[in-house]
Each structure stands twice: as structure tokens, then as C-alpha cells.
């Protein structure tokens, strides 16, 4: 949701902005966040009702950050019932040049075709993960591999090796073709491939090999418009008027004390076992570094906080401005689940990463930042699949204090500067791509 709103800002900041209108569709419970995000823009915001009484989905849930990952499929399927309201609102608009649709909302392709305008897919993944996934499934690369951890080279990119455990569990099982999750992915991929373009939240210079491959081997035209986290957002306008949150005051204190801080966060949808959470906590304790850890719930007991004392701060069940944290002078490392938005924010903030991928395409994102960009180190799980405290403590200390950490910091600083230049008005590569997109889909900039 956040990068989609940043994309709306980017469109409205274009030199044709006087002739461009942007309409954002959301749902009633998500509307306040969208309104706040775009409050100083001329974007129009329309909310359409989310379906009631969806089996398994608790009442009042209209966003995946309040939903266990296990309920993602029925939640996403339920959005199909919003199509009639969506199309009725679209028909009330004076003119639509093109639609930018979340890649998970496969049914919006039907709406765009019915009403006669192009649909462009917005995909949260980077280009590398996308083409690696395509190669693995098109070549049935891992179908006959029994081991979950045996590395297999990707045919188009033989220097990259993938393992079964890097992909969604049971995806290579023959029964998966009847699985609701697999069917949903199939619908989404089919509608994506039949659309008129795809927007990646990345920049040409970050993954040139993969973007070039995509352009040469896919019919769907890619538009690289990132890093969207560098687009001015609403927080930058309002932050001076707000009282500093407790976590920002704590970071300020650490900065004033000359202490470096590790930021720890695993995303809003991560499902982590209690055993793994305890190993992470003990690893952070043993590392002796200062850390700010954003967690869900109270599975990490208060006794842990008492033991680490002033060296650590826990933020529980509270939304934090991750970009502001990563930009803080005291933050010198990020222990991350490797969601692409988080990685882009870390790179743009010039903060090296300790990769701890958990689900979805996150292991492939880890391959990109660890092996290709060399801005991250990766934790290694024990044979039973849990990353142990000793591994976490060792890798954290190396990231924050060791020679490897210094090397990663030099690399990420170079990429961070490159990323910021990509959106420089009129000259940056992503800005030029935005020019081309507007010219291709909007006649006379309308």
C-alpha cells in the first residue's frame, strides 16, 4: 500500500501534473491512512465496500497487516466481489487513460477490458525475483529434486543457485495444481501477462542484467520507476508538527551517546515460531549490540528487556516510520525479513543488511542483495530449519563491528547514492522512464 501511494505522488509530481488527475481506490477502513498519505495532493480518493461475512476473515479486517498469512488466499479471493462497485465508480470518472492495479487483484484486468483502457500491473517484487521464479517454474527446475537444500543453477543465470526451500512450501508437489493458493497465483500471473505493462519498484542500475533479460524475453513491457521510497511522502510534511515517538527519542539518545544501533524488523505479516523468536532474542542479547526491535504481540517476555536494559528497545504492536528509523544517524545495520520495500528503504538509507528471509520471494530477494549487490550478509539456519542464537550473535557482531560490515557499508553507500539520483527530475533514469510512461499512455499529457 505504501509504495502504491508513493507512486501516486510520483505521477502527480510529473511536469504534466497540471493535466494529470490520479484517483485512488481503497476501502472504508483503509481510507484514513490513504487520506493522510495524500493529504497535501490533489489526488481523488474513492472507497468501495469490502465484502461482509467472508468465511474465516474476522469482521473489520480490510488489510493484510491485521491478517495471518495463512488467510491471505481467502482474503484476496474475496476482493472479487468488489468488482461491480469498482466498475460503477470507474464509469463515473470523466476519462481514464490507464489503470495501475495491484498485481494480486487479477480481476481488475476484466474491468479495464470492459471499459476500454489499458491496465498496468504494480508488482511489489523486484525484477530479479520475478525472472528467477519464471525460470524455475517454466523449466520445472526443482520438480525432481528431493532435497530441500540442494543448490541448483538457474539456466539463464547459471551463477545463481536456488533451492526448494527458497520457494513456497509444497509448490513443487503435483497436488499443488488443485491447491487454492496455487490457483490464485495462476490467475494473477495470467492476468499480469495479458496486461499492457508492469511497474517495478526498482531502478535500472540496481539490477541491469535482470531488467535487460526481462525486456528481451518477455512480451510485457517493464517500467522501472523506483525507488518509490525516495518520493516525498506525507510523513515528511507532518513530522515536525508531531511529538516525537518514544522510539525516536531513544534513537536520539543513542546517537548522543555515540552508540551504533541495529534495527530489527520482520514485516507486518511475518509468522515466526516462538522457538525462533526466542533464538533471535538470545542472539541479540549475546551480541552485546544496541538494538531497536519492532515486534508483534508479547511473545518476548519482559524479563528479556530487563536483561538487556538500556541496550535494547522493544516496540510492540505499533506502526513505526521505518524509513525515518533507517535514516537516523545512529542506525548502522538492519536485521530484515527481506521484503522488497524494506530492502529498498535500507539501500536508499545506506544501511547494510543482515538477511533473514522468512516467506514468499524473500529468499530470492536475499540472493540479490547478498550475492549480486553485496550489501547484505545472510544468516544460516541449522539443519532443523531454525536460525540459532550463536549464528545470530556472530553475524550481528560482524555486521555492526567487523570488516565484513565495513565492506557491506561501502557497497550500500554507493548503491544508495545511485538510487537517489534515479529520481532526479528530468535527468534520473527512473524519472525518464516516468516521462516515457506518461507519453505512451496519456495523449497530450491528459
TrEMBL record:
Question: Span of the secretion signal?
Answer: 1-17
Organism from which the protein derives: Arabidopsis arenosa (Sand rock-cress)
The chain positions of domain Tudor read: 222-287
Transport as UniProt keyword: no
One Pfam family, short name: UDPGT
Q: Which GO terms describe its molecular function?
A: UDP-glucosyltransferase activity
The entry's family comment says: Belongs to the UDP-glycosyltransferase family.
Which keywords has UniProt assigned to this entry? Glycosyltransferase, Signal, Transferase
Q: What is this protein called?
A: Glycosyltransferase
Protein EC: 2.4.1.-
InterPro entries in alphabetical order: Tudor, UDP_glucos_trans, UDP_glycos_trans_CS
Superkingdom of the organism of origin = Eukaryota
Known SUPFAM superfamilies for this protein?
Answer: UDP-Glycosyltransferase/glycogen phosphorylase
